[in-house]
Amino acid sequence: MENPNIQMENLNIGMKNLNIATVYTGNNCTGEPIMIPVMPVRPELARAYVPYQLYNKIFSAQEALRKGTVFPELVK
Amino acid sequence: MWFYDKKTQYPINIKKPDPRMAIAILTQYGGPNGELAASLRYLSQRFSMPTKEAKATLNDIGTEELAHLEMIGTMVHQLMDKVPPKELEKLHVDTTYVIHGRAVYPSDSNGVPFTAAYIESMEDPIANLNEDLAAEEKARATYDYLINIADDPDVIDPLRFLREREVVHYQRFGETLRIVQETMGKKKYY
Amino acid sequence: MDEQTTLLEQIMAYDFALYDLQLFLNTHPSDANALRDYKMALEQSENLRRQYQSKFGPLTARYLPNTTCWQWINDPWPWNNKEV
User: Fold this and answer.
1) Per-domain boundaries in chain C
2) B144 at C interface, C-beta within 8 A
3) Which residues in chain C (17-56) have CB-CB distances under 8 A to chain A?
4) How wide is the angle at C-alpha A36 spanned by C-alphas A31 and A38, nearest 5°?
5) How wide is the angle at C-alpha C18 spanned by C-alphas C4 and B36, nearest 5°?
6) Which of B33, B72, B62 shows the shortest CA–CA distance to B172?
7) C-alpha distances in angstroms, B101 versus A20, B80, B81?
8) Are B176 and B57 in contact (CB under 8 A)?
9) What are phi and psi for residue B9, nearest 5 degrees?
10) Is the ipTM reported for this complex over the cut 0.90?
11) C8-51: per-residue pLDDT in tens?
12) Is B69 helix (H, G, I), strand (E, B) or coil?
């Protein structure tokens, strides 16, 4: 059986090369903020992870309607 | 509750009738990967969501899917409306016509009526959200197939719009799953 | 394209931008940039809707410029083809 610590090490080495930024969710008005990294530093097994989007530039409203989103990075 | 805004989310103005395309598109009205399934799924699951971000996301994406249901219904209507019955017979869509006329009815493209068996709603938010991710991908793939067989730009444009919305919804459900997983920690669900 | 259609499509564009930003804000409720852009799009949408409704009638049932006439039922309804 593989050593699970080695698995996690390999994941962390991979993650170091990613530009990890944190995103604060939670709402200053009504709740405590929580930190969500773009990708988790220690992902769990048997769990799915979608990268958390960061805000950049958005399309004009007219272009957004044509494209189907205001976010250029989500046009696929 | 819901209010109604008297416009479609995206402009729809189909000038050329096409009954066969109408029947094909009907799958996104009452079929397994369609907008009715999506809206009922999300609007039912929202009651069990644990965090406020998750409640808002399920609520608001479920609401947007109702607007998409309206778009699909509009497209089917415009593609079928006023086509003479003899034309429908020539194009082999008369089997739908004899039951519904040229009306819009929630079924798939084979006439199979809509069923809640297409959706799941469980108390476990992680199970729900994984289903939602799958649903968005299946809807996106279905729009790929529809775009492949469409010719008319008046039809392709709204289909492309709807396809892109599925991509965006996938991202939002993915983020919601991240929040639920990371704030619920290692809590077990019974 | 006539003026009614042009104006309505501009409203569709801003209302759509608002909805896409709303979904983003639901998972990023502290994002100041998104909030700023939402506010700008909201102002545009409200302005255009005011113009549209005064010329062409209600977009919602909550528009009642006078009490002699219930315009809400009037055409066009969204699923009608433009060439009627």
Assistant:
1) 3-73
2) no
3) 17, 20-21, 24, 27-31, 33-34, 37, 41, 44
4) 150
5) 85
6) B62
7) 57, 10, 10
8) yes
9) -70, -35
10) yes
11) 999 999 999 999 999 999 999 989 999 999 999 999 999 999 99
12) helix
Structural domains of chain B, ranges and CATH numbers in brackets: 19-182 (1.20.1260.10)
Q: Divide the 76 residues of chain A into consecutive groups of 10 and give the mean pLDDT of each group.
A: 45 50 68 82 94 96 98 97
Tokens of B18: 């096409």
DSSP H or E run through A34: strand A34-37
CB atoms within 10 A of CB B107: 21
Q: Do A62 and C21 touch (CB under 8 A)?
A: no
B124 and B189 in contact (C-beta within 8 Å)? Answer: yes
| Domains of chain A by residue range | 4-74
Taking CB atoms and an 8 Å cut-off, how many pairs form between chains A and C?
48
- Neighbouring CB atoms inside 10 A of B113's CB total 9
Length of chain A: 76
